[in-house]
Amino acid sequence: MKFAFLIHNMYGVGGTNRAVLNLATALVGQGHDVEIASVFRRTDQPMFDIDDRIALVALVDTRPRRPDRADPQLREPSLLVPKSEEFHTQYSRLTDERMIGYLRSTSADVVVGTRPGINLVVARHGPDHAVLVAQEHMTQDLIDDALKEEIRLSYDRIDLAFTVTEADAAAFRSGNPVPHTRVEALPNSVPQPTVPPTDGSNRIVVTAGRLDPIKRYDRLIAAFARIAGDHPDWKLRIYGDGPQRPALTAQIRELGLSDQVQLMGRREDMSTEWVKGSIAAVSSERESFGMTIVEAMRLGLPVVSTDCPVGPREIIQHGVDGLLVPMDDINAYASALRTLMSDDDLRARLAKLALVNAARFDPDTLAESFAQQCAAVLAERGPATGRPPRVTRSAKGPRTGRSVLARGGEVVREPGLARLLGDPLLRGIAGSDLARRASMGALVRLSRIRQARATSARLQKAIRRRAAAPGAGPKVNCQVLPDHGLSLHVNASGLAAGAHLLLRDRDSGQKVRMPLEPQDDGIYQSVVLPADALPEGRWNAYVQPVTGARQRLTPDRIDTRVLAGGYQPVDGPSGANPIRAHLPYRTADGFLAVRSWVREEHAEVRRIALSGERVSIEAVWCGSGTPDRAVLHRRGHREGMVSVPVLRTRSGHLRIDVAVDELAAHRLGRYEDWDLWLRRADTDREVRLGLLVDDVVDKKLVYNYPEIYLVDDPGLELVEEYPAPLLRVRPYYTRDSELSIVVVDRP
């Protein structure tokens, strides 16, 4: 069968996109044809990797300098998508025409809508020959009553309506009955992870989702705060971005949890982050399903979740593979976390069953069920069975416009494309990666420029240079090894034997080469980078073929779970253990780089506590001898030094208490940075404090400590300054992950 999914914006992110893509990928894997029609295209590339066998079609291209942006119909309100639809204002007469045109032209056996407004369009204008399917990815209580009325009036032509939970299917049948439409539950699917499951050794609680009030991360933080003091070695990591980030940052600071609760930012691939944890947490007051729960369970994490009206209770078996907690009960949530954090055996037992039980959400299983139900509708209908009459609406303007090139470089149907590609230069561009991101309008405008300027040599040269620009290099999977070395597996399809991994230091230009070894699968070439293979620095990673230019490596998967557990001394807290570590990461422009650490002596920070009077630092000494003094040096051309004693904790760690008023008394400017060092009594050698054995590249974004405020006493000054200076003292990690303290007295 051929399946066509009509979706709001496949070029963005979101749970619906992931659910549709997982189902579509499983369907093509089972031999079906699949096409995804995205109503909108606002970026050059989708945020998710899409199987080359899936055709991706953009109906309205609103990227800069595309013809659709200038179409006057784009500014006329939609007549098809009702005002009660959440995204109504994004739709227009242009999207109406493109959706109708697409539905009239598709040859798909099954047409699937993926949100209420689009489902209504499918119901009214879907082709008579196809099975019409409405997927509901939001719960019934979130659908507007006016929109429900539209559904009751229009769903007669919908053959199958799928909700993501049984509870929501029951609510649909009872609260929104539609004749001739079969309502079933089809859970969202989560594919088998490509990384090994967690071993549960890191004492980290992980949660992920948009930082939105509905997720109630404020309650999660409050619950964690009640047990954090009893479990100082545990951390809570919150992945995601959203409008609540400032409020959550303030809450973390007020509770004094900056060292234990971290806002990690958004990740495109959460699989390598889930495995850094031992417990997954969900605190939402509402979930339509709970894909993050399944994702975590498929990687071996037991989940502590609020017992939402729908979703979690259909995934988690309380006390078997996770724990369900009553809504709005922070004490109960804290107690559930405490139970798992305190009981290693219970946590391991629930983790093992979570891994087994979550397999029922595998895409292949759910796709097979979905395809069978659609095939049954086709069989039941038969060739002579009619449909309810189609609701017709006037539609003027052009028929649907599709992307110029489908994935994999195949040309899709497009009026006038063959004529344009008769130009040799344009044909050459269309065969390149560049044109796969181009729209029809871009080629049209380019052809006009070539005609107007008589294919000037300068223009042709510029076009050829851009078309020939190297794209992303080979993809690579990275894993930090237990000894902090690095294993790299390069997807070397088309790369001859004899290639090398090339690492180049950004600052010095020094190069390190290591041969790549072909693997038995014939696809990957691998190399192991020992922990001591690189001097300290930041290294860009390339593949160097036997002949030809080097190419930057593009990370596909980066597994740094070993570093997330922090520094683990081999010979005890005061053992002489030099630091050797590699931290692979994705650069801002999407390539692979490695941060290497080499320290014969080092003080690794364990935790930082702030009071109104001091900054207290606990650290592990890695080196010979024992430091007895901590020295703070003022950075810059103004020399200054403050010395404080080093104490020993009961666990044998070092403790340094820095009195903030003493730093303030030494200030000479309105903004001063003080770098922390340790010094032994028998030597003048100084060693920096820092957090090196860690999986966070830019610690300024994650370790966000609050400021200590001091009111500056003007003494006998005769001139009153307004506003009065307010001294602020705050610890932070530098770009090199070393600890410093900033003193500011700007108003």
Automatic annotation (TrEMBL):
Q: What is its EC number?
A: 2.4.-.-
Q: What Pfam family is a match for this entry?
A: Glyco_transf_4
**Residue ranges constituting the Glycosyltransferase subfamily 4-like N-terminal domain according to the UniProt record:** 13-190
For this chain, one GO molecular function annotation is:
glycosyltransferase activity
Residue numbers spanned by region Disordered: 382-402
Q: Which enzyme type, at the first EC level? A: transferase
Q: Which residues form the Glycosyl transferase family domain?
A: 199-352
What are the UniProt keywords, alphabetically? Glycosyltransferase, Transferase
The membrane spanning regions, by residue number, are: none
Q: Does the keyword Repeat apply?
A: no
Under the heading InterPro entries, the entry gives: Glyco_trans_1, Glyco_trans_4-like_N
Q: Does the keyword Glycosyltransferase apply?
A: yes
Q: What is this protein called?
A: Glycosyltransferase family 4 protein
